[in-house]
Design a protein that fits this description.
This protein is an alpha/beta fold. Strands 5-4-6-7-8-10-11 form a seven-stranded mixed beta sheet, sandwiched between helices. Helix 1 crosses helix 10. The protein is elongated and about 55 Å long. The chain starts with a helix and ends with a strand.
């Protein structure tokens, strides 16, 4: 949120004077529909809904108020926009294109644990964009000669059982598919991964800073800053339907050597050379 605010300040907006931000925080996915409806009743000028999880209830609440997203995994694949070039509705913004990242995440994890024959995939069934991501994992597994163990977890309380399931299945590592839930629980996921001695691939740098083994993904703060440009254009009269969806322009591989050591894992030099950042 601070990155979004910084983006607005860079464009000359003064919070509380030239622009007012009404924050609504949900403790659970079930609350999102009511919060979206509340913002619509307030007749806000724009709704910022970071990812598919938030965009879906916002679209259900309004087809007229512009919606700006900045971390949507697959806006075309799940029908939130008609195309990247011409969104066609009341939603636009920036996409992480997570479906395209699935194969790369799996490949990088396999390089870190080359002897793994089974990989766990921790996913969130309440995130609309994740089923297409799972299909991409399935499509990629054959080339890497690995089996996949899909483990759903919709709440923090389900994490322990998910890791226990992966341990029972003797997975050699796991991918935590990025979602609002996993993003908000980086430290807990890192703790469970270490407890169960499972090498994990996560969605962003923050997960690795919290103790996760490695991550591959875009800079979400950069995307949030860039979302301010969409807000500015819409407030000046641009129509969301005609504002092309932009994709993340750079993806970063981050590795935590301290966690690797705790797991007794030795990263190949080739993989270390690919890393954009190494945390020691």
């Amino acid at each position: 949120m601070e990155a979004l605010r910084a983006g607005l300040r860079n464009l000359g907006y003064v919070e509380g004077k030239s622009i007012v931000i009404e924050f609504r925080w949900a403790e659970s996915v079930e609350q999102l529909r009511d919060l979206a409806a509340e913002l619509v009743r307030m007749n806000v000028d724009i709704i910022v809904a970071a990812s598919s999880t938030m965009v879906e209830p916002a679209r259900q609440a309004t087809r007229t108020i512009p919606i700006v997203f900045y971390a949507h995994a697959d806006p075309v694949g799940i029908g939130h926009v008609a195309s990247l070039a011409r969104p066609g509705g009341n939603a636009t913004g920036l996409s992480t294109i997570r479906t395209d990242l699935a194969a790369k995440e799996l490949e990088l994890l396999k390089q870190a644990v080359p002897h793994a024959t089974k990989i766990g995939v921790l996913w969130n069934p309440t995130t609309p964009s994740q089923p297409p991501v799972l299909r991409e994992f399935e499509a990629a597994r054959g080339k890497l000669a690995v089996q996949l163990h899909m483990v759903p977890a919709a709440t923090v309380e389900e994490f322990e059982g998910a890791f226990a399931s992966m341990t029972r299945e003797s997975v050699g590592g796991f991918v935590a598919v990025a979602s609002p839930l996993t993003n908000s629980q980086s430290a807990r996921l890192a703790e469970l991964a270490l407890k169960h001695r499972l090498p994990g691939m996560f969605g962003g740098k923050g997960d690795v800073q919290a103790g996760g083994l490695m991550s591959y993904g875009p800079d979400i703060n950069d995307l949030a800053r860039r979302a301010a440009i969409y807000i500015d254009k819409i407030l000046k009269g641009a129509k969301p339907a005609e504002l092309p969806v932009e994709q993340a322009s750079r993806y970063r591989l981050v590795i935590n050597l301290t966690t690797a050591k705790a797991l007794g894992l030795q990263f190949p030099d080739k993989l270390l050379a690919l890393a954009d950042e190494v945390i020691e």
